[in-house]
Amino acid sequence: MYKHILISTDGSKVAQSGVDHGLSLAKNLGARVTLITVTERHPLTAGGAGVAWAGGVPDIATYQEAETRYAKQVLDSAKAAAVRLGVEASVLHVPDAHPAEAIVDAAKSEGCSLIVMASHGRRGLGRLLLGSQTAEVLAHSPVPVLVVR
Fold first, then answer.
1. Residue 112: exposed, middle, or buried by beta-carbon count in 10 A (0-12, 13-18, 19+)?
2. ∠ CA 6-87-2 to the nearest 5 degrees?
3. CA nearest to 118, candidates 144, 140, 147, 98
4. Of 2, 75, 105, 117, which has the fewest Cβ atoms less than 10 A away?
5. 109 Cβ neighbours under 8 A, 6+ residues apart
6. Span 98-129, pLDDT tens digits
């Protein structure tokens, strides 16, 4: 049924539950996985009026280097978990992108039959104001999405 599973992670503890569940499912199904993490654009280059950068990153290049290093750590950790379980896994870092859009695009381009991702559990007004990457993926995915809580 599911031969190629796309597992999304941002490196958070909540996302790790999605990685663990997705890898366990892949092992049980004999599926291969693609582990994906998406890093967003530098806040000053993300566009839109009123955007301001208040962090300690002095420039865009430094920000991008830090995001790339973090993505590598996240993906290396998830890949190591896949190897421990004997699951065939590849990794994909999509830089400078909107996470939900990049996840849906990757599912299409990689030929995935399922997306597994964790829900950060936002509810009520917080979900409306902040948006939900999971909700966006659910709304636009061409394949089934398994949301792990």
1. buried
2. 45
3. 147
4. 105
5. none
6. 999 999 999 999 999 999 999 875 555 544 44
The 3 state secondary structure assigned to the chain is CCCEEEEECCCCHHHHHHHHHHHHHHHHHCCEEEEEEECCCCCCCCCCCCCCCCCCCCCHHHHHHHHHHHHHHHHHHHHHHHHHHCCCEEEEEECCCCHHHHHHHHHHHCCCCEEEEECCCCCHHHHHHHCCHHHHHHHHCCCCEEEEC
Structure token pair of residue 11:
């490196």
- Which among 85, 90, 82, 81 is positioned nearest to 36, based on CA atoms? 90
Tens digit of each residue's pLDDT (9 = 90 or more) over 59-68: 788 888 999 9
